[in-house]
């Protein structure tokens, strides 16, 4: 399912216009993004949690040339699946 399919499903399920459903989905994603940018954690019970992980710099290799390059430190979002979702998918 992609974002537009999620919007369509919300629109049909809750009898909303597509535009209103799109506003709701965008608000939810924007709020989640802002929390992660601030370094916060998002936990949705039964679904999972989102956190930002810090990765230190390291020496990598350019796959084309094999040349050593320095990869800068970075922060990446990480999702950890919740127990309930994991069990539902597994069954």
TrEMBL record:
GO terms for cellular component: cytosol. Belongs to the bacterial histone-like protein family. Transmembrane segments: none annotated. Keywords: DNA-binding. InterPro entries: Hist_DNA-bd (IPR000119), IHF-like_DNA-bd_dom_sf (IPR010992). GO terms for molecular function: DNA binding; structural constituent of chromatin. Gene3D superfamilies: IHF-like DNA-binding proteins (4.10.520.10). This is Histone-like DNA-binding protein. SMART domains: BHL.
